[in-house]
Amino acid sequence: MSFTSGDATRWSDVYVVAGSRAVSVCGDFLAATTLALVLQQSGHGGLAVSGLLLAASVPLALLAPITGRLADRADSRTILTVVPLAQAVVCLALAFVSSPVAIIGLVTLLACGLAFTQPVLSALLPEMVQRRDLAKASGLSQTAGNIGMLVAPALAGFLVGSTGARLPLLLDAASYLALVVAALFLRTRRKGLKAHQADLAKWRLRDDRTLTVMIGVLAATIAGVSAINVFEVFFIRDTLGASTTVFGLVAASWTAGMLLGNVIFSRVPPHRISVPAVLMVVAGSCLPMVVGATVPGPGWLFPLWIAGGICNGGINVFVMVIIAGRTPGSVHGRAFAALGAAVQGAGVIGLLAAGPLVDQFDARLLVAAAGAFGLVMTLAGALVVRREPPSDPVASGSVPVRDSVAA
């Protein structure tokens, strides 16, 4: 595990990363919402929209073995300048095409770029901070991303309605250039020193069974949540009879809860953050789904979805601390890429399964089943973790490696 080798956390770098994350996430969701609206307005059906979602997710899962290794071997500044520049060019092209095939192909290229930059940014954060400050830094980064997620859909709807699709896509291209500027301002830098090749060669996720179980439970839960993103449209609109406005507010309440969760759980002391604690907040994010499936009206979902979002925010903060603490610093790129692959792959499975299920079963039953599935997987994971001895990289012989330098 590797944290900043200086005497103090580089908060200026943390703020730069958080700011760039807010801009880039807003840009990504702005483009995704815009393109979905474009496909819908052009008369293309659910197949085209599903293809768009898959194009944005599949590359992150498939490329993880390559991008994780590159994140640990290459200069972080090089990756964070070259790749976003290429993404900006792709986004410029998106602003001038209308064919669904071309749109999906270009979105796939954008997702390939994201597969390269995500593990680099995740691996940089532990290098910027002292161990005691990682939860707070992670909370700041997650909060920035959630703000971008909240702003983007409304902004996309306004811009597409008033100016058309081109402007929001050009703004997304500008967001990638903002990431380039942020990379040039960062003092923290991972250079993939050759002295760490032994760590790179011998580290395997499955050697830490507790960490593997945690990621497996997260993946299973994400599969259920991804399916619920499809189910809830039919559940809230058809079963509960909510208007489109109420549906939008209910969906936004989960993200609002995540913002609260980021603030609340970023204050938890590092010694209290453990894999069992992660499993507890995972269960806390699933339980409101089960209860929500029993409500008589949409108004009941607001407090439940906020509660689930709060636990979701805790998951995001805790997972960053756990992975940074249980893996050598020289392989953080691979570790975070493995997490990203599991989450994205599970999300794809959930989306693929949801479509046929909606046509066969009642939406209320599907929401309850998805939440219950997450609870069962969490309980099973907790039983496995309880039997496992704690695994610490230092105790097992992996000495912390400090591979960050001030530029």
TrEMBL record:
It is a multi-pass membrane protein. Keywords: Cell membrane, Membrane, Transmembrane, Transmembrane helix, Transport. It is found in: Cell membrane. The chain crosses the membrane at residues 47-66, 78-97, 103-125, 137-161, 167-186, 211-236, 242-265, 277-296, 302-324, 336-357, 363-385. This is MFS transporter. Residues 1-191 form the Major facilitator superfamily (MFS) profile domain. Pfam families: MFS_1. The keyword Acyltransferase does not apply. InterPro entries: MFS, MFS_dom, MFS_trans_sf. PANTHER family: MACROLIDE-EFFLUX PROTEIN, TRANSPORTER, PUTATIVE-RELATED.
